[in-house]
């Protein structure tokens, strides 16, 4: 029979951790509030034609038919492990090696090479698999930085980074401010300024993290900027992480320079060792549900540690098995990459043209599943509040869920990210029509 | 300053432990019936390979589930896009019902209180992130699963303080051991946030008794802390006794829907009961809304592949399959365990009497040169390198008594098990004390078996050994 322990704990409820109760998960931002409005009243061509059209979700739905056809052709009998006794099932079900399925790693390496037109080589043994890029980015942050250290991230950036890079890691993000004066490219001044800001606050900077092509800008990072970034990281002796999750979504392959290409021609290990690439199949292949992400690092210590840490976030062996042969079929992937780029480019042109006709300009983009739209001229007040007010109007009146630049930490107000690849062309036209009508109404007043 | 975080330079990943080194040795020289009959037999891997045929034949009869189809129609697109961290409702419902079935439908699980994770490795770490931070500690009974050092401490910064259990009472948790652990934490300036138990236990293979469960619930009530019950082996219970879950105890003590019930959390996974570690399916069950909410968001870092959720929701929703599977699984595990136990007996080696799990907790104290961990490591090395069996030494499980080893029995064929036992017997008989023990113990064991069995360990030794005082 337990004695009541004296005085040890009063009747207060035992606390959860600081991590559990903090709001660093970022889910209270408007980025997520718009999703809620969509969930409550989703557009449907037949059942709910006046519902909210989801333009805040960066999904790639334009090329599923290619994948479906391929998988159907490969497994005509249906079952993944064959219909005669399911051979290979038990081996697959038992496979939990954090090195990942070798055939799958090889397939990922070859796919990443193809996306870069063979301009960089990827060693399958440097590929660490994680359950999505969300996990990859968090994992890398755990490895490269300690609590209260900082990563420099150019603005505007993907809202999820607030959670992925900071929440459980305790690491801070210090923004590198970019603006429209030079198409939001990173400048040496902005970089130095961000670094200095951190130093002034006594915060140790451990690295720079960029997304290339950029989310939300929908544009590739210029080669000279990449070279400068690497040079900066060498000078400051910090890391460079390049999240290249949209690399296969660049409309014209020649316009993309991966940091891998820059490193390819460098022999100095002390330079290479600070470079890490994140990739995922969620955007290029449109498979976010399958949770396939990867860290590629030129640093042996990082690879080894990331591999061990990936125990917390392994890719289902069932999924690795299904995708391994598809991704290593070079004839198929070549065709897929080419057609996917084409279709995304076409979508982009439709939306940009449509917006132009409505009198709206976008940042000149060349990649991704979204465009970066400038509505600054519509703001009553050129403030964050003014922007959120406009966002609310667009959500409530036009029933379009788009992402306000403030949720991406943009330092210039009035910009919005608008997704175009997660719906049918018809739906896109409807959305554009609603925007036209809205702009017409405004002009009349 | 380019160097990496302290998490990299520390040993928090735990991979220098002998637990993992044994695996490495196995990888270099793995046994194969035909290609490498003198290779090392893996007995350090707690996998369940006994019932794959049941799942395989289900897959053949239900081809849609694994080929991303529903009623013959492709749902590839739907699954490819499904990344909702709330998880697939049909899957959570199926998991809840499966967990209920394992507990004889005596308790209910609400699917809304389930949070999915990529394996229980991920589930345990996520729970830790929610409940503890640097400066906090969880109390764990020893011996415990070596992976906990990494899972609970590495990235969370939390500490583990052991609750020492000994063979004197079959390694059961006692009140004084609990209190001692709690005080030890205080001495170390750590704030105790809770107790974590594995039930049935890894590496013991025993299920917690009602007395122990009551003790634990009373303890956390009075100390106002959490209780995590990792019930990953709940479906491997094959003994005569019924598995008692901490949920049973909450119900029996009429603590459901009380404040205490919010501090009791269950972790589960399909890696052991169903033998699907590759698919990464784990779950946290909690009555605390805040924890469910925080853990759900954290699950973004380790979601279960939608493809896998779909396959398993179909499998687990087939009640005919699940009831047949659970029954057959228990039968085969029981038979396999008995085979290991009697094989060891004929070599003069006894085990802790157990009724669950995929392993036995084997008493090799009589084979040690001295009653020390150095001697245990020496013996382990002999068994690994000379006998070519990879088994797990108790020290890697933080056992306070030298001489105990965890030996797995469900990850190999019957023939391989027999061969392993043969090798072990040969080894034991080749040592002086072994020859004498094996003959005399065999006789003693035959007569002992006739007596009523209890949960106490049979000590077979021809010299008196004084247990280590701690």
Secondary structure: elements and pairs:
The complex is a heterodimer of chains A (445) and B (470).
Chain A: H1 18-21, H2 30-40, E1 53-54, H3 64-74, H4 89-94, H5 102-115, E2 127-130, H6 133-144, E3 150-154, H7 161-166, E4 172-176, H8 188-200, E5 205-211, H9 223-236, E6 239-243, H10 259-264, H11 269-272, E7 275-280, E8 293-297, H12 300-309, H13 317-328, H14 330-357, E9 361-362, E10 370-374, H15 384-396, E11 400-401, E12 403-404, E13 415-419, H16 425-444
Parallel strand pairs in A: 1-11, 3-4, 3-5, 5-6, 6-7
Antiparallel strand pairs in A: 2-8, 7-8, 9-10, 10-13, 12-13
Chain B: H1 6-9, H2 18-28, E1 41-42, H3 52-61, H4 63-66, E2 69-70, E3 73-74, H5 76-81, H6 89-102, E4 114-117, H7 119-131, E5 136-141, H8 147-153, E6 159-163, H9 175-187, E7 191-198, H10 210-223, E8 226-230, H11 246-252, E9 264-269, E10 282-286, H12 289-298, H13 306-317, H14 319-345, E11 350-351, E12 359-363, H15 373-386, E13 389-390, E14 392-393, E15 404-408, H16 414-430, H17 432-448
Parallel strand pairs in B: 1-13, 5-6, 5-7, 7-8, 8-9
Antiparallel strand pairs in B: 2-3, 4-10, 9-10, 11-12, 12-15, 14-15
Helix pairs in contact in B: 6-13, 7-8, 7-12, 14-16, 16-17
What Rg of chain A do the Cα atoms give?
23 Å
What is the helix fraction of residues of chain A, given as a range? Answer: 40-55%
Helical segment tally of chain B?
A: 17
- Large-scale geometry of chain A: globular
Tell me, briefly, the overall form of chain B: globular
How many strand segments of chain B? 15
Q: Which strand order do you get reading across the main beta sheet of chain A?
A: 2-8-7-6-5-3-4
Largest sheet of chain B: 7 strands, mixed
Which stretches of chain B of 5+ consecutive residues score pLDDT under 50? 450-470
Structural class, from helix and strand content of chain A? alpha/beta
Amino-to-carboxy terminus distance of chain B: 44 Å
**Structural class based on helices, strands and sheet pairing of chain B:** alpha/beta
Neighbour order of strands in the largest sheet of chain B: 4-10-9-8-7-5-6
Largest interface: A-B, 88 and 81 residues
């Amino acid at each position: 029979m337990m004695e009541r322990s004296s005085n040890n704990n009063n009747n207060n409820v035992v606390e959860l951790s600081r991590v559990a109760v903090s709001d660093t998960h970022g889910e209270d931002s408007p980025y997520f509030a718009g999703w809620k409005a969509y969930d409550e009243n989703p557009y449907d061509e037949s059942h709910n034609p006046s519902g909210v059209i989801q333009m805040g979700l960066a999904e790639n739905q334009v090329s599923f038919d290619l994948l479906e056809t391929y998988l159907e052709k490969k497994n005509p009998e249906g079952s993944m492990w064959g219909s005669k006794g399911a051979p290979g099932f038990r081996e697959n079900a038992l496979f939990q090696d954090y090195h990942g399925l070798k055939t799958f790693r090889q397939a990922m390496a070859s796919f990443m090479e193809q996306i870069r037109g063979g301009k960089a080589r990827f060693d399958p043994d440097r590929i660490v698999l994680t359950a999505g890029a969300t996990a990859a980015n968090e994992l890398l942050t755990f490895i490269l930085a300690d609590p209260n250290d900082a990563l420099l991230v150019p603005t505007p950036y993907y809202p999820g980074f607030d959670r992925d890079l900071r929440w459980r890691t305790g690491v801070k993000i210090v923004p590198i401010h970019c603006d429209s004066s030079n198409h939001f490219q990173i400048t040496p001044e902005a970089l130095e300024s961000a670094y200095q800001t951190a130093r002034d606050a006594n915060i140790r900077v451990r690295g720079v993290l960029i997304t290339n092509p950029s989310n939300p800008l929908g544009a590739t990072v210029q080669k000279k900027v990449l070279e400068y970034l690497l040079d900066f990281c060498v000078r400051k002796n910090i890391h460079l992480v390049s999240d290249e999750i949209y690399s296969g979504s660049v409309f014209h392959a020649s316009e993309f320079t991966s940091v891998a290409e820059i490193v390819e021609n460098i022999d100095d290990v002390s330079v290479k060792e600070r470079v890490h690439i994140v990739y995922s199949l969620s955007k290029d292949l449109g498979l976010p549900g399958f949770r396939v992400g990867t860290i590629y690092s030129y640093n042996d210590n990082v690879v080894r540690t990331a591999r061990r840490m990936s125990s917390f976030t392994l890719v289902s062996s069932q999924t690795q098995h299904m995708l391994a042969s598809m991704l290593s079929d070079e004839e198929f992937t070549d065709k897929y990459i080419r057609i996917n780029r084409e279709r995304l480019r076409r979508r982009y042109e439709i939306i940009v043209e449509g917006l132009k006709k409505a009198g709206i300009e976008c940042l000149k983009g060349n990649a991704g599943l979204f465009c970066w739209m400038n509505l600054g001229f519509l703001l009553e007040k050129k403030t964050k509040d003014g922007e959120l007010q406009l966002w609310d109007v667009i959500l409530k009146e036009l029933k379009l869920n788009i992402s306000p630049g403030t949720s991406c930490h943009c330092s210039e107000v009035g910009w919005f990210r608008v997704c175009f690849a997660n719906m049918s062309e018809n739906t896109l036209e409807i959305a554009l029509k609603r925007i036209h009508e809205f702009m017409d109404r405004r002009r009349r007043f | 300053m380019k160097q990496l975080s302290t998490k990299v330079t520390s040993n928090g990943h735990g991979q220098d432990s002998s637990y993992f080194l044994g695996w490495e040795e196995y990888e270099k020289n793995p046994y194969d019936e035909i290609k490498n009959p003198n290779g090392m037999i893996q007995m350090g891997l707690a996998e369940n390979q006994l019932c794959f045929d049941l799942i395989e034949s289900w897959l053949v009869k239900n081809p849609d589930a694994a080929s991303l189809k529903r009623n013959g129609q492709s749902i590839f697109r739907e699954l490819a896009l499904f990344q909702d961290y709330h998880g697939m409702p049909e899957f959570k419902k199926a998991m809840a019902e499966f967990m209920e079935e394992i507990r004889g439908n005596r308790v209910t699980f609400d699917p809304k209180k389930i949070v999915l994770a990529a394996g229980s490795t991920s589930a345990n770490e996520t729970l830790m992130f929610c409940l503890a931070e640097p400066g906090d500690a969880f109390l764990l009974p020893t011996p415990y699963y070596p992976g906990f050092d990494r899972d609970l401490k590495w990235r969370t910064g939390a500490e583990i303080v052991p609750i020492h259990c000994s063979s004197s009472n079959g390694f059961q948790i006692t009140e004084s051991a609990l209190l001692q652990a709690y005080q030890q934490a205080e001495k170390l300036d750590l704030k105790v946030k809770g107790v974590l138990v594995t039930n049935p236990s890894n590496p013991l293979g025993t299920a917690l008794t009602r007395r122990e469960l009551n003790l634990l619930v009373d303890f956390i009530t009075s100390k106002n802390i959490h209780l995590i019950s990792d019930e990953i082996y709940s479906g491997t219970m094959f003994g005569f006794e019924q598995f008692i879950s901490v949920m049973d105890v909450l119900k029996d003590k009429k603590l459901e829907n009380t404040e205490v019930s919010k501090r009791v959390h269950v972790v589960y996974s399909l890696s052991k009961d169903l033998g699907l570690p590759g698919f990464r399916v784990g779950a946290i069950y909690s009555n605390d809304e805040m924890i469910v909410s925080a853990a759900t968001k954290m699950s973004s870092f380790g979601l279960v592949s939608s493809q896998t959720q779909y396959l398993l929701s179909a499998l687990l929703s087939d009640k005919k399959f699940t009831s047949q599977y659970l029954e057959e699984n228990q039968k085969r595990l029981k038979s396999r365990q008995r085979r290991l136990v009697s094989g060891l007996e004929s070599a003069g080696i006894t085990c802790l009497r157990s009724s669950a799990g995929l392993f036995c907790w084997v008493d090799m104290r009589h084979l040690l040169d001295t009653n020390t961990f150095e001697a245990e490591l020496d013996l382990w090395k002999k068994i690994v390198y000379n006998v070519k069996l990879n088994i797990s030494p108790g020290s890697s499980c933080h056992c306070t008594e030298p001489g105990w080893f965890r030996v797995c029995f469900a990850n190999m064929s019957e023939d391989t098990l027999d061969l392993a036992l043969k090798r072990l017997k040969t080894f034991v008989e080749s040592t002086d004390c072994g020859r004498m023990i094996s003959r005399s113990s065999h006789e003693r064991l035959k007569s002992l078996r006739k007596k009523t069995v209890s949960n106490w360990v049979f000590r077979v030794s021809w010299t008196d050994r004084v247990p280590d005082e701690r």
